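Exercise 7b. Backbone tokens:
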């Protein structure tokens, strides 16, 4: 099994609360990075919108395609 498949299996075991805690941890990590490197916050709004779109492109593509965007391991 691939590394991503193994990680997906582990993430699927997490509950709703665990996923929300991980989201909070990622948010706080972002705050720490902003505190350590305040020059990152001086970028214009357009850069943040571009970065958000770049990060959301692949997940949104998977959500919007009919078959989920990839082959499953059952297709041999």
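Sequence design result:
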């Amino acid at each position: 099994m691939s590394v991503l498949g193994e990680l997906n299996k582990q993430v699927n075991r997490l509950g709703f609360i665990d996923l929300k805690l991980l989201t909070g941890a990622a948010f706080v990590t972002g705050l720490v990075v902003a505190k350590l490197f305040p020059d990152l916050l001086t970028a214009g709004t357009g850069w943040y919108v571009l970065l958000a779109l770049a990060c959301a492109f692949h997940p949104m593509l998977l959500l919007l395609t009919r078959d989920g965007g990839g082959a499953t391991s059952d297709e041999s």
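Instructor comment: The first helix runs from residue 3 to 12. Helices lie at 3-12, 16-36, 45-64.
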